[in-house]
């Protein structure tokens, strides 16, 4: 369909941009034709998209069912219907650390328009309808992964059969207001710019001082009594070499850290960049995963552990551990 070509152009323009994360969602809709004698209708919509990190853009596809709009003054059952898919590219302005924001977007839709003629001598009419769409909206994130969504869109020149029965021609704009929920999906792509160089992780400091290595013992040199000139010189024994301590096997941990212990996760949790709620997320951990604990930090939000898991490292709340 035509909207796929538009999405392809948008994806080509965004090649090389780091994806901040995909999202999906659903909403209830309230839709309205331009005519006063055409009733408003309610139905549903579903959507999915990506938001980009290095540029404030979003790419989205959606399916919208505008519902059935009864036409007043005509027999019961006569009404207009429209449903279709659309692709759009938008400007997204982020408002807080959870990901709330507002947007403006524009795109292209492709769908089907129907004229239902129940209780009349005519057969139902159906035709394809496509054109431009534009709108605005916003997300209010309750958590970094879940939020509420408001969207206002205008579908331009939707087929409305206003010339029937002479022809199937006739077009009008359809306004669709939707209110629903949005769910952010985990992404393995880094949210940091390519030039970002993380600071070295702090070394683990044990609670007790390490034992000092024993000093090597050098035997005292014994004084020799005088000998005749012909006597062979007395050799002085060489100092014994200190015995090297056996090497300690250390796990391959970031920044040369030493594990303080191992614990399991009690529930699915996230590796955070700082020891606080709402910090940027660097990875996800399933329930029952084994973590190597590296450093313990208490603060106003509880106790946090700097931990290593599956090649990743970050901060985990102690409340998420067994």
Automatic annotation (TrEMBL):
Q: Which residues form the Outer membrane protein beta-barrel domain?
A: 8-182
Annotated signal sequence range: 1-20
SUPFAM superfamilies for the chain: OMPA-like
- Signal keyword on record: yes
Low complexity: bias regions: 219-248
Residue ranges, annotated region (Disordered): 219-252
Tell me where the transmembrane regions lie. Answer: none
Q: Which UniProt keywords apply?
A: Signal
Under InterPro entries, the record lists:
Beta-barrel_OMP (IPR027385), OMP/PagP_B-barrel (IPR011250)
What protein name applies here? Outer membrane protein beta-barrel domain-containing protein
Organism of this sequence: Solimonas fluminis
């Amino acid at each position: 369909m035509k909207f796929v070509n538009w999405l392809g152009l948008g994806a080509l323009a965004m090649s090389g941009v780091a994806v901040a994360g995909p999202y999906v969602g659903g909403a209830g809709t309230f839709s309205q034709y331009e005519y006063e004698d055409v009733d408003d209708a309610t139905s549903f919509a579903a959507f999915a998209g990506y938001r980009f990190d290095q540029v404030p853009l979003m790419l989205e596809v959606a399916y919208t069912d505008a519902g059935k709009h009864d036409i007043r003054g005509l027999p019961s059952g006569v009404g207009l219907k429209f449903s279709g898919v659309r692709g759009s590219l938008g400007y997204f302005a982020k408002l807080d650390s959870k990901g709330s924001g507002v947007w403006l977007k524009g795109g292209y839709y492709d769908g089907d328009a129907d004229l239902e003629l129940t209780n009349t001598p005519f057969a139902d009419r159906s035709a394809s309808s496509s054109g431009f769409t534009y709108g605005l909206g916003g997300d209010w994130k309750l958590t970094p992964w879940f939020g509420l969504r408001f969207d206002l869109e205008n579908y331009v020149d939707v087929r409305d059969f206003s010339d029937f029965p002479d022809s199937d021609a006739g077009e009008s704009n359809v306004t669709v207001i939707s209110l629903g929920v949005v769910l952010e999906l985990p992404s393995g792509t880094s949210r940091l710019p390519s030039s970002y160089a993380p600071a070295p992780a702090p070394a683990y400091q044990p609670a007790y001082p390490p034992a000092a290595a024993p000093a090597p013992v050098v035997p005292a040199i014994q004084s020799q009594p005088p000998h005749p000139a012909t006597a062979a010189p007395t050799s002085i024994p060489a100092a014994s070499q200190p015995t090297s301590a056996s090497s300690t096997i250390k796990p391959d941990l970031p920044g040369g850290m030493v594990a303080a212990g191992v614990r399991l996760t009690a529930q699915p949790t996230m590796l955070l960049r700082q020891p606080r709620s709402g910090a940027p997320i660097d990875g996800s951990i399933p329930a029952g995963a084994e973590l190597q604990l590296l450093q313990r930090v208490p603060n106003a939000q509880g106790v946090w552990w700097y931990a290593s898991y599956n090649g990743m490292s970050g901060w985990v709340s102690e409340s998420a551990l067994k």
